[in-house]
Amino acid sequence: MRAAVAGSVVPHHVEGVEVEVLAPEYQQILAVLAGSEAAGGLRAKQIAVQLGWQTTPARVEGVRSRVKRLTDRGWAAELRPNVFGAVSPAGPADVG
User: Fold this and answer.
1) Which of 2, 22, 25, 48 has the fewest CB atoms lying closer than 10 Å?
2) What pLDDT is stored for residue 8 in this prediction?
3) Is pTM beyond 0.85 here?
């Protein structure tokens, strides 16, 4: 399996697909979500701050776009509108 490169497509999260298939910036976002102690989740600006990235409106929107893409493909969860968290260790398929 080849390592992902920046700008590569985000695959759907299914059993057997590991985080290493994601581009580095997506892996970093998931690490922040997984390591967050904020039970209520994080907003895009909070994720950018934790990553040490700029918090300009354009950069924050880029983070939001990436985390929304991760959410759409089952890698992260949108707990409330524009508030994100990690998915359960069992994965996205076990949703009620």
Assistant:
1) 2
2) 60
3) no
**Which class for 25: exposed (0-12), middle (13-18), buried (19 or more C-beta within 10 A)?**
middle
**Residue range 24-67, pLDDT digits in tens:** 999 999 999 998 876 789 999 999 999 999 999 999 999 999 99
Amino acid at 95: V
Q: Which of 75, 53, 73, 72 is nearest to 62 (CA)?
A: 53
Residue 65 phi/psi, 5-degree rounding, is -60, -45
Q: Is 20 helix (H, G, I), strand (E, B) or coil?
A: helix
Tokens of 30: 């998931």
Local structure of 92: helix, strand or coil: helix
- In CATH terms, the fold of domain 19-88 is Arc Repressor Mutant, subunit A (1.10.10)
